[in-house]
Amino acid sequence: MANSIDGNVLAAKSLAKFGVQHMFGVVGIPVTSLATRSVSLGIRFIAFHNEQSAGYAASAYGYLTGRPGVLLTVSGPGCVHGLAGLSNSAANTWPMVMISGSCDQSDAGRGDFQELDQIQAVKPFSKFSVKATKITEIPNCVAQVLNWALLGRPGGCYLDLPTDVLHQKVSLSEAENLITEAAEKVFNNGNQLNQIRIRDNGLVSEAASLLKNAAKPLIVIGKGAAYARAEAALKKLVETTGIPFLPTPMGKGVLPDTHDLAATAARSLAIGSCDVALVVGARLNWLLHFGEPPKWSKDVKFILVDISEEEIELRKPHLGLVGYAKTIVETLNKEIKDDPFCLARNHPWVEAIWKKSKDNVAKMEAQLAKDVVPFNFLTPMRIIRDAILGVGSPAPVVVSEGANTMDVGRAVLVQTEPRTRLDAGTWGTMGVGLGYCIAAAVACPDRLVVAVEGDSGFGFSAIEVETLVRYQLPVVVIVFNNGGVYGGDRRTSEEMNGPYKDDPAPTSFVPKAGYHALIEAFGGKGYLVGTPDELKYALSESFSARKPAVINVIVDPYAGSESGRLQHKN
């Protein structure tokens, strides 16, 4: 059929027609042609070494752009590896679509090459999964997964493309009709993202009244608010009412960390003493101590803003507002405009937050001011903070991963613009670093990307520095090299027994490993640093070049400590 196309081309055409601009993945049988055809139709394909990193990239891309990140994998093991990204999207509620090839349908159940019931395998992590059982179903299936990824609470979806379906053919005219019909059927009727309405405007009035009559109100800003592009509405709310705000780790930057009403440095006081907390785009999970005593007051009244009614029902707040965060905050602003109030700078609550923040910042700055060599975590983190701030606007996207490195970075690094911090997130996922870097570089081409990684976190995906070099992405990876997980061998004499007592400790890596040499092997720039001046030079040169680089920062292996849950002492 001279004027016919196969399933690979039809899938690529459908993705392009429905707005996909980037794909991430690892190619092979049976999806290589799908990737190359997608590129020929204007979709940029970023080829990775490992589906896990590609999946993490797709998940972060969904968060940064508000459009589903698309991951392409081969069948069987490739699909299983891709589950890392799909599950990460599910946990963080980011829109993503995983597309995997699968075995020929006629050979299913017979032990075919890389055979797996992939629909069943993805079930725990997918909002919506579908298999195209014949070529004519492809456009509708593509439209459905892209649409479902965005509907209501965002999340991951899965599309299964069997080998035989990819090899089937249809005429070009029929293909165009199928794509048009799918667009009309799915996107014109099914996409409710921008049509979400607040269920009961009376609840918004009640929320405004609760905030107005509170003695110690607090606004908690989560990454869901960043995803919803609610920064302008939240800025207006905070500055109109004078209510202090507390960002979650990835909510940092929705309003600048430097804002006078930021309560980040007074977190314990803020959550422990507030009597009404408006929580926008954050869940009352472990990151917020489940909203329970002793971290929170037993009498606090939560106003939860969430796109998911199920989330509201689960948390049972004093008041729940179901809808799109930006829309709800804008409506709340209109309500307050009709009955305005504002906490003055000398209001006891505002003053208490401000004083505690100032005191804690002063204590931290006193520690940061010291140049400690061999490096602890604070000295290089201060130098990195200052270098990042020196870039100005648009601010770099900071990717933070590790144990001590991420914990210290969360306290020291300053976010001034929304969606400029990516970290281990809701699931505390290690291994996301290089995938997130690549996603940020692709999604935000006007921004430098700076990764601040522990050596353990870096190791999960270190080979992807070749991907940075291959695509010449403006990413600078800073590795805090303290010789292991938490910092080398911490065993006591009592723990060093048994026939393998002379093996390296489970927490230790090769001391002072040459991580910078890895990127040099592929033609990138590597730096080995151990003093403040060496680090400042490496940051200045690499930031100016905006080329792939790895800065290997040698840190005292005894400077860190075991870390897991958020530890806040302020």
Quaternary state reads: single chain
- Do you know the CATH architecture of the largest domain? 3-Layer(aba) Sandwich
Number of helices: 22
- Major beta-sheet overview: 6 strands, parallel
Q: Count all strands and give the number.
A: 19
Return the CATH topology of the largest domain: Rossmann fold
Strand order of the largest sheet: 3-2-4-5-7-6
CATH superfamily of the largest domain: Thiamin diphosphate (ThDP)-binding fold, Pyr/PP domains
The top-level CATH class of the largest domain is Alpha Beta
Distance between the termini: 70 Å
Fraction in beta strands? 15-25%
How helical, in percent, are the residues?
Answer: 40-55%
Compute the average pLDDT: 94
Instruction: Kindly name the structural category.
Output: alpha/beta
Poorly predicted ranges: 190-197, 566-570
What form results from the Cα inertia axes?
globular
The domain tally reads: 3
Tell me the Rg in angstroms: 25 Å
Q: Can you offer a commentary on this structure?
A:
The chain is of the alpha/beta class and 570 residues long. It has three domains: 4-194, Rossmann fold (3-Layer(aba) Sandwich), CATH 3.40.50; 201-355, TPP-binding domain (Rossmann fold, 3-Layer(aba) Sandwich); 370-569, 3-Layer(aba) Sandwich (Rossmann fold), CATH 3.40.50. The chain has a six-stranded parallel β-sheet, sandwiched between helices. The chain has a six-stranded parallel β-sheet with strand order 15-14-16-17-19-18, sandwiched between helices. The longest helix has 21 residues, at 348-368.
Summarize the structure.
It contains 22 helices and 19 strands. The protein has 570 residues and is of the alpha/beta class. The radius of gyration is 25 Å and the shape is globular.
